[in-house]
Design brief:
mainly beta, four-stranded antiparallel β-sheet, two-stranded antiparallel ribbon, 0% helix
Length: 91
C-alpha cells in the first residue's frame, strides 16, 4: 500500500500513523499519540509537559515522564506540537 501526497507516492515504511486518544485539548484540538502537550491543574497552573505515549501498564495514554502519567488525571491539556515536527519542544 502506498500513500499519495501532493502527487508524490510515499512507501508505507516512511509513514507514521498516530493513534487518536479520544480526547481533545482545551481548545478542542484532537490529541494523538506523539503529540506534545502541556498539562494544567484546576487553577490553570502548568503541572508538566511531555509527549503522549501508549502506556501498557496504565492501559491507556500517558504523558511520558510525568507524574501521574495517565492523561485522564489532568483537568486540561494543550497540544503544542508533536515529536516529529517539533522535537525541540522536548528539550
Amino acid at each position: 500500500i502506498f500513500a499519495l501526497c501532493a502527487n508524490v507516492v510515499i512507501p508505507p515504511e516512511y509513514i507514521e500513523l498516530m493513534q487518536y486518544t479520544g480526547l481533545k485539548d482545551k481548545y478542542g484540538k484532537e490529541i494523538y499519540e506523539s503529540d506534545i502537550v502541556i498539562a494544567y491543574n484546576e487553577d490553570c497552573n502548568t503541572i508538566c509537559d511531555g509527549a503522549i505515549v501508549w502506556d501498557k501498564w496504565e492501559c491507556g495514554f500517558s504523558i511520558k515522564g510525568a507524574e501521574p502519567t495517565f492523561i485522564g488525571w489532568y483537568p486540561e491539556l494543550e497540544v503544542i506540537g508533536n515529536i516529529y515536527e517539533n522535537p525541540e519542544l522536548l528539550d
